[in-house]
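Incident log, structure service

09:12 report received: a user says their structure output differs between two submissions of the same chain.
09:20 pulled the input from the user's history:
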Amino acid sequence: MRLKEWFGWHFPELIRSITDIFLLVKVIILIRCRDNVRDDFENFKGPLIELIGSEEIVAKIKADADISMGVTLSETDVIHIQELGTCINDMLLYRKDLAN
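09:34 re-ran on a clean worker, output below:
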């Protein structure tokens, strides 16, 4: 999946921490970029715990964000990643609806 590959260049530790693609897309849409987790964790902690369901994984994501050596995203990259993530999320929801 292109979103996973693209965001993986920026925050590879997140890609390894969350293996469920549906959850990964939602997390990427929520955090936008690794710097948000690193610099503004208190605002993202609650929504991440609610989304992921595990404080341990959220703490690991924070620790990984603090030491991540991934590439920096430009604001244009963030916008395109958000748009792609939203499209993928919509398609995954549609696929889930079709399966039911």
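09:41 both user submissions now match this output. Likely a transient worker issue. Closing.
09:42 reviewer note: The mean pLDDT is 93. The first helix runs from residue 2 to 10.
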